[in-house]
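S1.2 Input.
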Amino acid sequence: MGSHFTTPLLAVGIFAIAGCGGGGGGAGGTPFVTRNSTTIDSQTFAASVARANLFRRSNDGAMVLQITEGSMAGVSISCLDGQMQNCTVLGGANNTGTGGLTQHLQGEYAFVGNFRIDQRIDGENASAAQLVHAGALDRHATQPNLPRSDIPTSYQGQFRGSAGLIDGPYGLVGGDAVLEVNFAAGLLAARFNGGFPDGGAPISAAFNNVTINSQTGQYTSTDATVMTFQNADAGGNFDGAFYGPNGQEAAGIFNLGNETHGGMSGIFLACQNTPTCLAQD
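S1.3 Output.
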């Protein structure tokens, strides 16, 4: 696992971002705690995992993130630089703002990203994080036909995100991601273990009974999904999809938390049996 939790150079391409399905309530209906679910530059705000599209604008080559659902529906982020660090936000109450890509992971077939959006709405500064998963840059979308006997049931990779611990550290985090898939039952389990780049408390999260849609290759949390954060019951949501002609990669986004430990939001990308498909930071 690398120690870099910020984004490297991102090439320009055309791709679509899959959306988030319904969120699971966690064990016993534990409420999701948004405290420090995303913390950047000592500013804390809740993460959004609503549906969006990302495409290249033909007239000037700008990359545009267009949010189509959730609390920021109608907002677009236009980025002229290849790293997507300096972007203009259009939409919302005052139709202006700034933004940029904070973190991302990229494989051969999949891409996940965490965008920061800053706006001034009704005279107040408002910030949000938009977590997205998509097909890799310059790759045509492929739809795996699931379940398939040639798709392994174990995926290994990495996650990036932001966490805030009550009575503890907060900020960007990263670590290992492991997914176990049962295509026959249509269920997925995911485990995330890592920490903060400068040390401190370890971070752990787990999702069990995530539902797989064999027709679309997507998976999402439901009311039956059991979630834990720091080994305690949690609430939140989880959304992703299999990418590649044989489902070689699994990518997605999540946020969760509890009243005892705090919360975390993140992006992940995992590969069949090995993490080597990820582009290096």
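S1.4 Remarks. Confidence is low (pLDDT under 50) at residues 1-47.
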